[in-house]
């Protein structure tokens, strides 16, 4: 299993990343620095997480060269539109204190306001002038992606979606694979709920001599999805990154996927107003 994956635009992305939602203030900076020290090289933030400053500060204090860290941020719903997106990007970039971001995502499609095509067109401008190395989307359905690709002629590099054993997203993963879109998994641990307590997962963990959380993260990697687990604890951060030393069988992957019971997010993806 490689430690990095290739995007459809030729750039490289780490195969596992660090989610930063809710990591704020000095404690947040310390947690993000400890994640970098543990070895994470992908940091996932968003304007709406109100912690881009903390992410930038942790990078600077870590002393790790900027080019070794892959930084993702996201455009919020209130900033959809061509001009608005260019202004919003600049706000994020200044918050981060960086010259460029590695991946810029549309956080939610917001089809009700129907501006995601213009928004993505602005992202292509940012990509073309080098301020965003790669551009993509989040929480897009097949219908949204079909339209975006048809109207811009560009396939987003990434679609970041809710994905965990309770919601394995077989259909979207298959669609992404057909179109060369990398799947990123948000809430890969189902937000720390009870997936790790499932007998299916604990038995597989025991068989491999690893923890249930490591089994779940390895399941993501073998589904070719890039998980971005969040943890405030240095010990759990290290545990979550230590998933390259064992391999799940096809049968084990299938039994974990059979835990499907539904998504955590309770909005309607076709009409969502989130963010
Ligand atoms: P998550 O990563 O699935 O779960 C985080 C929870 O699991 C925390 O409560 C954490 O607690 C716990 N945890 C982590 N490692 C553990 C371990 N080894 N053992 C036991 N518990 C553990 O949930 P998430 O934060 O919702 O999702 C991850 C990232 O995805 C976010 O931070 C954000 O960057 C991104 N995201 C994106 C979207 C989107 O719309 N694009 C939506 C949601 C999230 P401790 O901190 O105490 O360890």
Q: Which ligands, by name, code or SMILES, are bound?
A: NADP nicotinamide-adenine-dinucleotide phosphate
Q: Calculate the mean pLDDT score and round it.
A: 96
- Rounded to the nearest angstrom, the radius of gyration is 18 Å
N-end to C-end Cα span: 35 Å
Number of H/I helices: 10
Strand content: 15-25%
Shape: globular
Q: How do the strands line up in the largest sheet? A: 3-4-5-6-7-8-9-10
Percent range for helical residues? 40-55%
Number of strands: 10
Descriptive report:
The protein is an alpha/beta fold and 275 residues long. Helix content is 40%, strand content 16%. The protein contains ten helices and ten strands. The chain has helices at 25-38, 52-62, 82-96, 116-128, 142-152, 170-179, 199-208, 212-222, 234-241, 250-257, and strands spanning 4-6, 12-14, 18-19, 42-44, 70-75, 101-106, 132-138, 158-162, 182-186, 225-227. An eight-stranded parallel beta sheet has the order 3-4-5-6-7-8-9-10. The chain has a two-stranded antiparallel sheet with strand order 1-2. Helix 5 links the parallel strand 7 (132-138) and strand 8. Helix 2 packs across helix 3 (82-96). The longest helix is centred in the N-terminal third of the chain and has 15 residues, at 82-96. The model has no long low-confidence stretch (mean pLDDT 96). NADP nicotinamide-adenine-dinucleotide phosphate is lined by residues 19-21, 44, 107, 138-139, 160, 186-192, 213, 228-233, 236, 239-240.
């Amino acid at each position: 299993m490689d430690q990095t994956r290739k995007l459809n635009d030729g750039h490289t992305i780490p195969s596992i990343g660090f989610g930063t939602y809710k990591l704020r203030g000095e404690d947040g900076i310390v947690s993000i620095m400890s994640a970098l020290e543990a070895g994470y090289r992908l940091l996932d933030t968003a304007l709406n997480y109100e912690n881009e400053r903390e992410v930038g500060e942790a990078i600077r204090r870590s002393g790790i060269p900027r080019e070794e860290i892959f930084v993702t941020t996201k455009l919020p719903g209130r900033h959809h539109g061509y001009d608005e997106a260019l202004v919003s990007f600049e706000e994020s970039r200044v918050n981060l204190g960086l010259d460029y971001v590695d991946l810029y995502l549309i956080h939610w499609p917001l089809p009700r306001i129907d501006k995601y095509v213009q928004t993505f067109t602005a992202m292509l401008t940012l990509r073309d002038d080098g301020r965003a190395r790669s551009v993509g989307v989040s929480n897009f359905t097949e219908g949204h992606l079909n339209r975006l690709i048809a109207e811009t002629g560009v396939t987003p590099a990434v679609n970041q979606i809710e994905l965990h054993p309770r919601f394995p997203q077989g259909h979207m993963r298959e669609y992404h694979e057909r179109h060369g879109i990398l799947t990123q998994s948000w809430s890969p641990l189902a937000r720390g709920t009870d997936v790790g307590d499932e007998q299916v997962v604990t038995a597989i963990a025991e068989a491999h001599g690893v923890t249930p959380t490591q089994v779940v993260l390895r399941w993501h990697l073998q589904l070719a999805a890039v998980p971005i687990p969040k943890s405030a604890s240095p010990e759990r951060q290290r545990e979550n990154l230590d998933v390259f030393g064992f391999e799940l069988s096809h049968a084990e992957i299938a039994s974990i996927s059979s835990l499907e019971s539904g998504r955590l997010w309770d909005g309607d993806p076709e009409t969502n107003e989130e963010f």
